[in-house]
Amino acid sequence: MRLAIEHRTEYRYSRAVFLEPLTLRLRPRCDITQSLHSYNIVMDPKPSGIGQCVDLDGNSSHTVWFDGLHERLHISVSATVQTHRHDPFDFLITDAAASILPVVYAQRLRPALNQYLERSQTDASVSAFAATIQTETDGGTVRFLTVLAERIRASFQYSVREQGDAWAPRETLERKFGACRDFAMLYVDACRCVGIAARFVSGYCYAEAASEYHLHAWAEAYLPGAGWRGFDPSEGLAVAERHVALATGRNAEDASPLFGLFRGDATPALTTLVSINKLPD
User: Fold this and answer.
1) What is the pLDDT tens value at each position of the chain, 281 positions in all?
2) Residue 136 φ/ψ, nearest 5 degrees
3) In-domain check, residue 226
4) Looking at the structure, do residues 37 and 138 belong to the same domain, yes or no?
5) Are residues 75 and 126 both part of a single domain?
6) Cβ neighbours of residue 143 closer than 8 Å, sequence gap 6 or more
7) Is residue 53 domain-shared with residue 112, that is, in the same domain?
8) What Rg do the C-alpha atoms of the chain give, in angstroms?
9) Domain that holds residue 167
10) Cys staple from 279: which of 2, 156, 163, 205, with CB 3.0 to 4.6 Å?
């Protein structure tokens, strides 16, 4: 699927402020699941400098800094992406110990996966939630991953929340509603409860009938032989060609598409606009 993406972000401040260096992860990922055909970013005011790097999680990251005081910051990104994964289950788990829960990874993998196995908060309610689904799915790893996404989609009310950090998994579980980033972090934590290495993903999700778009978030689980595989608890399904990934991280903060602070006594107002159009292949 070939998708044209336009993403505009604008911050307005009640009075002029000094913009601290910004971290931008707005360049779509380019790997076996998706190809980046074009990418352009424009900022107003024009930054004094831009540094580009690959961060710890392999994301394309920009560090941007500014001089002077400013009352607004506008960031406009346009990208064309070709997605390639038609069948989200086109894999074979090559280690039998990862097919049954709790997953036991080979010792050679653990140093790389430890950060994706460690829970931020060891809450008993999330452990019990994961254990219930583990029992229902007879301890099958892939079945657990699938049913977990379906259960969150069916049992929780989805809401759009443009600003704010992702809630703690316990909060989302108690409230029974949340934004996509809240569902993604609940999914990640439930996976870690049963020994599955999992990480947070930020990006976009295309839908034929969508009237408006927002940034989206989901999770990826690591399976030997399959690598990182996406599951979207907001949609209740395994990730395939409709999803475009921007960044991944151990948690939501590490995969945030935009992160920065400002100096000054001002109230910020955020406006975002995302459009996605399907192009002929």
Assistant:
1) 999 999 999 999 999 999 999 999 999 999 999 999 999 999 999 999 999 999 999 999 999 999 999 999 999 999 999 999 999 999 999 999 999 999 999 999 999 999 999 998 888 999 999 999 999 999 999 999 999 999 999 999 999 887 778 999 999 999 999 999 999 999 999 999 999 999 999 999 999 888 889 999 999 999 999 999 999 999 999 999 999 999 999 999 999 999 999 999 999 999 999 999 999 97
2) -65, -30
3) yes
4) no
5) no
6) 137
7) no
8) 19
9) 96-255
10) 2
Residue 90 lies in a domain: no
Question: Helix (H, G, I), strand (E, B), or coil: what is residue 1?
Answer: coil
* Domain containing residue 251: CATH number: 3.10.620.30
Identity of the amino acid at 7: H
Q: Please state, in angstroms and rounded to a whole number, the distance separating the CA atoms of residues 179 and 226.
A: 28
240 belongs to a structural domain: yes
Asked if residue 91 belongs to a domain, the reply is no
Q: How far apart are CA 179 and CA 23, in angstroms?
A: 22
- What's 101's DSSP letter? S
Distance CA 281, CA 279 (A): 6
What CA–CA distances, in Å, run from 278 to 33, 141, 207? 17, 33, 9
Report whether 31 contacts 45 (CB < 8 A).
no
Domain count, the chain: 2
- Residues 6 or more apart whose Cβ sits within 8 Å of residue 112: none
Q: Say yes or no: 45 and 117 in one domain.
A: no
Do the Cβ atoms of 86 and 34 come closer than 8 Å? no
Q: Cα(228)–Cα(34) distance, rounded to whole angstroms?
A: 14
